[in-house]
Structure formats: structure tokens, C-alpha cells
Specification:
Radius of gyration: 23 Å
Structural class: alpha+beta
CATH architecture of the largest domain: Sandwich
Organism: Nocardiopsis codii
Protein name: AraC family transcriptional regulator
Pfam family, one: HTH_18
Strand order of the largest sheet: 9-1-10-3-6-11
CATH topology of the largest domain: Jelly Rolls
Keywords: DNA-binding, Transcription, Transcription regulation
Order of helices and strands: EEEEEEEEEEHEHHHHHHHHHH
Distance between the termini: 29 Å
InterPro entries: AraC_lig (IPR032783), AraC_XylS_family_regulators (IPR050204), Homeodomain-like_sf (IPR009057), HTH_AraC (IPR018060), HTH_AraC-typ_CS (IPR018062), Tscrpt_reg_AraC-type_HTH (IPR020449)
Length: 339
């Protein structure tokens, strides 16, 4: 795992959050469940994604769009369509649930021959759990569009073959293919010519800062100092500090503190039986009081207050996520030379 891969921890397509739709015009699907992330891929035909208060996006065969919630959006055959919108949420999938041709993870054979001009749409809606996964939302625009012809094409081929089948385990395969598509689509968006990816994403390509980030993700609870991090990356303290600040826009230990607090926030919620002192030790603090002071400074609320139901937590600045404690450290090669 790296800073980018960690963003997807906890993001998984799950059964009822998958839909395969075969549509003949006129048609309009209105997605109303407010999913934090919804991935739409057109296998054949075309249509328009119409977000609220934003320009429509044409989606052709082989193209993918990711829509960031919670605002609803519509997928239509043409802008201004005369079709009556069908509301599609994560449970709106079969006729008895209010849907028509919106199905859960299998090919809709009841539609018969859809005729010329039919559009096949694959949809995966993703819940976002915890502070780590939430940072993926912070790094994305409301509508992210990826054209065909890139790394997503291989996934599309597998998706097309799988939705045409009716075999045991199909739902599991489709879910994992959607996860693969999500990662590929976001990566292509960040790597597009003229793009402006988040600073932490670009920083991973630097041989010095990239290694430093991988070390911090692999061993977040280690007693890091700038000197020890520089030793592990094979450069001087001054070189590491300068390059890290240039690419990440903050010093290494400031980044580490925010990173630890992000991990601690999830641990406080996920491990209800753990004491604040135990969470503190899990993220590298031997002193629970020092941890609480740092947590409140970064998160705007005490650890106990954060864990309390109903607590309103202030918005946090965008930053890379942590690995879970106890993760097996990745092997990081020593690169560069001392200067």
C-alpha cells in the first residue's frame, strides 16, 4: 500500500450497491440515495449524466464517470428527455422495489431485445466509512470523467463478459471488477495530461519524498525523527526536509502528526472497548495526555468527545491517510545519496 492505495481501504462495492441496466430511449434514471461515490460506466450506447446545479456530461460507450455525493443526479438518454424519471437508490433494483430494468448484479434478461440505440449502464455505489476513506472524497471533484482508451479498457472487457453471463459467484466478480474500475479511473484522472493531482499524489513520484511517505505509511507508530527518516531514505536531514516541504507543503513531522490523528480518529470509533491511552499507544504516543492535546489541536475536539455519538466534528484539511497499526511494513529501497 501507498498514500494513494490507502485511500481505497474500506471502499468496496457490496452486492445490493451494484446495478446493470439495459435502457431503450427515452429513459431517465434519477439516483437519489446520496451515495458518497457513484461510479457509472457505459458498456454500449450513450447517455448524459446530469448533476444538480452543474453542466451535463455526455457519457459514450467505454467511458466512465464518478459522481461525488450526496447530491442526487440523473442519467438520461438526452438532455431535456420526455421520459419520466425512475428513482434509483441502493435498494431500488427490482420491479417489486419500484424499479423496472435496474437490477442487482445480474444481466437483465427480462427486457427482451432492447433494439437499436439501447444503452447498457453499469453502476456501483460506494459507502465511505471512516476518516481515512473520507479523504478520497476530499481529493475528487464533484464529477470525474474518464474517456475510453486508457487503463480502464481492460476492466471494461471483463465487465462486458461478466454481465452477459449468469454463473455462480457472479456478484462477487462484478463487485471486484467495479473496485478495479474505481481505482483505475481515479488514477487516470490524476495522471491525465495537464491535470492537477493532489500534492501528496505527485509527491509519491519523487524518489526521496516517495520513500519517506511509504515509510510513514508502513510504520506510523515508529518514533520518527527527521534524522531517522533521512537515514532510512538515504539523504541528509536538510535534503529530506527541503524536498518534503516542497512536494507535500508541510514538514515531515507535521505531516506525521496529522496522519496519526487521522488514524486515531478511526480507531476511536472502530475499537469501542479501547481506552484513549491504548489508542494513543497504537499511533505512537506513550503519553495519553500529549496525545489528547495533539488530537484536540488537529481535530478540534478531544478524543473522548470525538468518540461520543452526536458530536459535531469540524471540517479537516485535506491530507493523505494512515495505514492501520500492525500493518506489515513495505520494503523500501534506499535511494539517493547524502548531500
Amino acid at each position: 500500500m501507498d498514500a494513494f492505495g490507502d485511500l481505497f481501504r474500506g471502499l468496496r462495492a457490496q452486492g445490493s450497491l451494484f446495478g446493470n441496466t439495459i435502457l431503450s430511449p427515452p429513459w431517465a434514471l434519477h439516483f437519489v440515495d446520496g451515495a458518497p461515490l457513484t461510479l457509472c460506466t457505459v458498456l454500449g450506447g450513450s447517455g448524459w449524466i446530469v448533476p444538480e446545479n452543474r453542466p451535463p456530461e455526455l457519457l459514450r460507450a467505454g467511458e466512465t464517470v464518478i459522481v461525488r455525493g450526496p447530491e442526487p443526479f440523473t442519467f438520461v438518454d438526452e438532455v431535456g428527455t420526455r421520459a419520466e424519471p425512475i428513482e434509483c437508490g441502493e435498494h431500488c433494483a427490482t420491479p417489486d422495489q419500484g424499479g423496472t430494468r435496474y437490477r442487482l448484479g445480474w444481466n437483465d434478461s427480462t427486457c427482451g431485445d432492447p433494439g437499436d440505440g439501447a444503452t447498457t449502464l453499469i453502476v456501483g455505489a460506494y459507502p465511505v466509512r471512516g476518516e481515512i476513506s473520507r479523504r478520497l472524497l476530499d481529493a475528487l471533484p464533484v464529477v470525474l470523467r474518464v474517456a475510453s482508451g486508457g487503463g480502464t479498457d481492460a476492466v471494461l472487457d471483463h465487465l462486458a463478459a461478466e454481465v452477459a453471463a449468469d454463473t455462480p459467484g457472479q456478484q462477487v466478480v462484478l463487485d471486484r471488477l467495479l473496485d478495479w474500475m474505481l481505482v483505475c479511473a481515479v488514477r487516470e484522472y490524476f495522471d491525465r495530461p495537464g491535470g492537477e493531482p493532489p500534492a501528496w499524489y505527485a509527491a509519491q513520484r519523487d524518489p526521496v519524498v516517495g520513500d519517506a511517505l511509504r515509510l510513514l505509511h508502513a510504520e506510523p507508530a515508529a518514533p520518527w525523527k527527521v534524522s531517522s527518516l533521512a537515514d532510512r531514505t538515504g539523504v541528509s536531514r536538510s535534503t529530506l526536509a527541503k524536498r518534503f516541504a516542497h512536494f507535500v507543503a508541510e514538514p515531515p513531522l507535521t505531516y506525521l502528526t496529522r496522519w496519526r490523528m487521522t488514524l486515531a480518529a478511526d480507531l476511536l470509533v472502530e475499537r469501542e472497548g479501547a481506552t484513549v491511552a491504548e489508542v494513543a499507544r497504537a499511533v505512537g504516543y506513550t503519553d495519553a495526555f500529549a496525545f489528547s492535546v495533539a488530537f484536540k489541536r488537529i481535530r478540534g475536539v478531544s478524543p473522548s468527545g470525538f468518540r461520543r455519538p452526536g458530536t459535531v466534528v469540524p471540517e479537516q484539511p485535506v491530507g493523505p491517510p494512515l495505514r492501520p497499526p500492525g500493518a506489515v511494513p513495505a520494503a523500501v529501497p534506499v535511494v539517493g545519496a547524502r548531500s
